[in-house]
Write a structure and sequence with these properties.
Shape: globular
Number of strands: 15
Mean pLDDT: 95
Strand order of the largest sheet: 5-1-13-14-15
Order of helices and strands: EEEEHEHEEEHHEEHEEHEHEHEH
Largest sheet: 5 strands, parallel
Low-confidence stretches: none
Radius of gyration: 18 Å
């Protein structure tokens, strides 16, 4: 049976220049490969070693990029290795099959959101009314599924995100702070639901996963084994679970370690023990 590897991308496998966390002397820094260009500028990187490991992984498992990015944002990433047959975008709202949107899956997602959550317009109105333009740089709606703000972290009031989360929770929405972005996402809009669908279609009996944010927790819990880097919301809150390995590496070297662990597990090699 195939092994399914579902991985978050940003700050898990790929890293912006600001998130690389290259703390070693310059002469010892790893060689980097640019895997994303935006508006003619390099944007995201992985180490060359991680790129080779990911290429090898594509031959050993069903690799499924699993991201909160929109389809357009995902499609500008040029990952090494075989083109993934499946990709999950918009936090599970869209399932791509050989690069094309699966419209039946999207319709199922929309039906569930309509049944279980407050409408997006209510969330958007609240954000517009309560987020201060002093520290908000952008208001964004992603794929007509969820909302996010781009903020100046140093100006963001300490309790604002907690207050937003408390307001959103009874309305069926989740709030997550990732770098300079504050996400408001419907609770049923999950990466794990889409990953289960891919596992059903491929017949995979072993699922491996990795992620760094609160939006990845459901993905990690749905996997047979999971890894989280030493940075991000999950690390900051010391989140873990019985089958989750909390890695010490931070930044782009964490991405390299995650890819190595994926490949070892996909090949049936003995993995490191889970975090305690």
């Amino acid at each position: 049976m195939p092994v399914l590897v579902a991985s978050d991308l940003d700050r898990t496998l790929i890293y912006s220049a600001a998130a690389l966390a290259l703390t070693m002397p310059d002469a010892r820094a790893p060689r980097l490969l640019c895997v994303e260009v935006h508006e003619s500028r390099p944007l995201s990187y992985m180490t060359e070693t991680a790129a080779q490991l990911l290429t090898d992984l594509g031959d050993a498992a069903v690799f499924v990029p699993t991201t909160t990015r929109t389809r357009k944002q995902y499609q500008r990433i040029n990952l090494p290795g075989p083109q993934p047959a499946y990709a999950i975008c918009a936090n599970g709202g869209h399932l791509l099959v050989d690069g094309a949107t699966d419209h039946d899956w999207h319709a199922r997602v929309l039906a569930r959101l309509a049944d279980e959550c407050a409408p997006l317009d209510e969330i958007r109105e609240h954000l517009m009314r309560t987020a201060d333009p002093v520290w908000v740089r952008k208001h964004r709606i992603a794929e007509d599924l969820f909302a996010y703000l781009v903020v100046e972290r140093e100006l963001l009031p300490e309790d604002w995100v907690k207050e937003l989360a408390a307001w959103a929770e009874p309305r069926g929405w989740t709030v997550s702070l990732q770098g300079r972005k504050i996400y408001a996402v419907p609770k049923p809009l999950t990466k794990s639901a889409a990953v289960r669908e891919v596992a059903r279609r491929t017949g995979a009996e072993l699922t491996l996963a990795a992620g760094d944010s609160l939006l990845d927790a459901d993905l990690l819990l749905a996997a047979d084994r999971g890894w989280r880097p030493g940075h991000g919301e999950l690390a900051d809150s010391q989140w873990t679970a019985p089958a989750i390995t909390a890695l010490p590496e931070r930044g782009v070297l964490a991405g390299e370690r995650i890819t190595r662990e994926f490949l070892r597990a996909a090949r049936g090699e003995t993995p490191a023990g889970p975090s305690r």
